[in-house]
Amino acid sequence: MIKHHKTTITMALALVLTWVSGVTLNGSAHAADYFGAIAFSQTTGAHGYSYDYNSQREAEIQAMAECRKYGRGCEVATWVRNGCAALAVGDGEGWGGDWGNDRREAEHKALNRCDKNTGNCQIRRWVCTR
Predict the structure, then answer these.
(1) CA distances (Å), origin 91, targets 2, 24, 96, 114, 124
(2) Are residues 107 and 66 in the same domain?
(3) What is the pLDDT of residue 93?
(4) 112 and 71 in one domain?
(5) pTM to 2 decimal places
């Protein structure tokens, strides 16, 4: 009886360890991706944004819809997966959009892109996903 009980406990422990290992491996292997986007109209200065969408397409559609509420001529300025995005706008509505692992990196890259096109660039919008 004691031998049977030990075998049952050993098998139960092995099953629990296998289940815990599977949850840990599957959890990290299937981590969710979150997308965001920023849309901008150089014509009107309107912009729209989105974050925490399940696909790039969904994020871009939402950012464009938000931008179109405020003006025409919108285009996707930048998009991001699991990070941050920023839009910098300068003189004459010149602009630059980019992404990074965090807000600081995204803003720095967007300002650099904007500075290549125009002067007096400033961050107009930033977004970060979860």
Answers:
(1) 83, 51, 12, 10, 13
(2) yes
(3) 81
(4) yes
(5) 0.76
Closest by CA position to 70, among listed 125, 122, 123: 125
Q: Mean pLDDT per segment of 10 residues, for the chain of length 130 residues? A: 50 43 46 96 96 98 98 97 98 94 98 96 97
Q: How many domains does the chain have?
A: 2
C-alpha–C-alpha distance, residues 107 and 123, integer Å: 7
Residue with tokens 């050993």: 10
Nearest CA-CA partner of 89 in 109, 62, 110, 64: 110
- State both tokens at 88: 């910098």
Residue 62 phi/psi, 5-degree rounding, is: -65, -45
- Domain containing 42 equals 35-128
Do 12 and 44 lie in one domain? The reply is no
State the pLDDT at residue 58. Answer: 98
What pLDDT is stored for residue 2 in this prediction? 54
- Name the residue among 90, 110, 92 with its Cα closest to residue 100: 110
H-only helix segments in 30-102: 56-68
How many other C-beta atoms can be found within 10 angstroms of the C-beta atom of residue 100? 19
